[in-house]
Each structure stands twice: as C-alpha cells, then as structure tokens.
Write a structure and sequence with these properties.
Largest sheet: 8 strands, antiparallel, barrel
Keywords: Signal
Pfam families: DUF2147 (PF09917)
CATH topology: Lipocalin
InterPro entries: DUF2147 (IPR019223)
Helix content: 10-25%
Distance between the termini: 50 Å
C-alpha cells in the first residue's frame, strides 16, 4: 500500500528534450539574440549564446548580469504534445514571467504572461541551426 501511494505521489518521468529543440539554436525576430536549447537537469532551458551590441546594451540597463550566458528560457517541462511550459526571463526588465513554447517546424512561438494569463506577449523565433 505504501509503495502504491509513493508511486502515485512521485512526479511523472519527464520525456527527453524533443529533437526539434535539443541542442538547437534559435534567433529572435530582430536577429539580435541567439539562444541554444539544451537539457538543464530534468527540464529544458534556453541560454543566450550570441547577442548584438544593441541587445547587450538594452539588457545592461535592466540587469547587471551579462546577456550572453543568461538562461532566458528556464525550467521548461512538457505540458502536452508539442507544448512546453516554464519561465521566461526578460533581461531588459530583470523580470521572470510564466511562459510557454511551441515548436512548429522552423518556428518557435514563445509566449510569456505576467500572471494568470494576463499581460501576455508572444514572439516567433526562427531556427538558426
């Protein structure tokens, strides 16, 4: 009985990062930031690997943390087929929002919301490699 209870309370095993995200690089719409997705523990994260001088300057106004090397997509877990949920860090604002990513071919649609689905913004990223 205890084993059954523990099995029910244990978190469901996470699936591996989908091939369309694992070790891929994506660029934002202005091609001013490139992010690589890779596993971070049991989750999936996206780290800035390149940024334009303007993006670096904009981020510096909101945070003392260097933009390149910052995880802006954090702790994403599968929510349903093709949809991952986690947190999105916006360096310009030094703020983290709840987020969702969906991959459609060579497009990654990221959506972040302030709270309870309010104050949301979407952005479509393109696959670099």
């Amino acid at each position: 009985m205890i084993a059954l209870l523990l099995a029910l309370l244990a978190p469901a095993p996470l699936q591996a990062a989908p091939p369309e995200l694992s070790q891929t690089v994506w660029q934002n719409p202005r091609n001013s930031v490139h992010v690589r997705f890779e596993p971070c523990g049991a989750q999936l994260c996206g780290t800035v690997i390149w940024a334009s001088d303007k993006a670096i300057a904009d981020a510096a106004r909101g945070s003392s943390q260097p933009l390149v090397g910052t995880r802006i997509f954090r702790d994403f877990r599968p929510a349903q087929a093709g949809v991952w949920r986690g947190r999105v860090y916006v360096p310009d604002l030094a703020t983290t929002f709840s987020g969702r990513i969906t991959v459609e071919g060579d497009r990654l649609i990221g959506r972040g919301c302030l709270i309870a689905g309010l104050g949301c913004k979407s952005q479509t990223w393109s696959r670099v490699r």
